[in-house]
Amino acid sequence: MIVEQLSLVDFRNYAAADVSLHPGPNVFVGRNGQGKTNLAEAIAYFATLGSHRVSQDAPMVREGKDAAFIRTRLGHGERRVTLEIQLNKQGSNKARVNGAPVKTAELPRYAQVVLFAPEDLQIVRGDPSARRRFSDQLLIQRAPRMASVLQDYDRVLKQRNALLKSARARGVRGDGLSTLDVWDDKLVTLGSQVIEARLRLADDLTQPLTDAYTAIAGADHQPGLHWAMSVAGADPEEDDAGAEGERSATPIHDQFRAALAARRASELERGVTLVGPHRDDLVLKVRGLPVKGYASHGESWSVALSLRLASAELLRAESLLGDPVLILDDVFAELDTDRRVRLADVAQGYEQVVVTAAVEQDVPAPLRTQVVRVDSGRILPEAPEANDG
């Protein structure tokens, strides 16, 4: 899949912008704060329905405006498709495919993008929410229907939490809240789908993660990952990640329902849902130890980058769209020379790569075949190539 054209109106610091992209590497160069990352963010939005920098859409709308517009033309072989998204500060976003209105959840069916940025260190070093978000965005790309499942789960969770909070205020205890059973059924049905999809994803990422880590770090530190699940008794949100053990043969649906029953009194006492995929954590390891708290800075970078490259390999193997677009946002400045070269070697194998950098020379020469300069929300004309003779 190739992004051929990107157009922005009132997106971040762009009043209006049009940029053409090419197969192979595309490098956006400019000082910090000029809008390079905004271009990467706009491309990735179609694939993940979110930003890698903010959890809400409103900050992506230009100051003083009510909506931002992103339009892109994608190419896959002889096929062309135009995607459009209107990000509204108030109300629901609107989407179009080839000019026809569609639900926004349909967009990831047409676009696959894997973006790595320095913020991804939070995946390995941050709270469990960062790892859940990484997994769920990849789930959506892998199976776009999961966007609706995740949205429905969040809606049911909020309604169930509101009921628990109200019951707590009224002093309800024990089995005195029969209306909770209806929400339990919905929570279990939707949440089990999320958990099962996450478990399959972790299994399928294991080998690509190992391969990517070795390619980037130049060493086999035995990277690994597994889910610590609240339905199985762990509570990562309370700093109890749980030990990795044999996965229970009991169906997730049954584990979920039993865990809810066991925690009912605690939930009524605290006024919040304590069991479900919203409490789980993806535990990452190197050399047999959790990355969070034990890995060195270089190992943490390698694990975070390897997670994204493993994601790209997984999508590449499964997708009918060809390679996902690989975006490396302000990454090379953070890497030593050896890792820069190794990453460039991996990136060159993709149909299209988008790189952002403040300093052009930070990007290995093989990736600098197409360079676009960005200044204060403007795409500058390409400078003529220098004569090496």
Automatic annotation (TrEMBL):
Keywords: ATP-binding, Cytoplasm, DNA damage, DNA repair, DNA replication, DNA-binding, Nucleotide-binding, SOS response. Residues 3-360 form the RecF/RecN/SMC N-terminal domain. InterPro entries: DNA-binding_RecF (IPR001238), DNA-binding_RecF_CS (IPR018078), P-loop_NTPase (IPR027417), RecF/RecN/SMC_N (IPR003395), RecF_2 (IPR042174). Pfam families: SMC_N. ATP binds at G30, R31, N32, G33, Q34, G35, K36, T37. Coiled coil: none annotated. Its main location: cytoplasm. It is found in: Cytoplasm. It comes from the Bacteria. Signal peptide: none annotated. The RecF protein is involved in DNA metabolism; it is required for DNA replication and normal SOS inducibility. RecF binds preferentially to single-stranded, linear DNA. It also seems to bind ATP. Belongs to the RecF family. PANTHER family: DNA REPLICATION AND REPAIR PROTEIN RECF. This is DNA replication and repair protein RecF. It comes from Microbacterium aquimaris. The gene is recF.
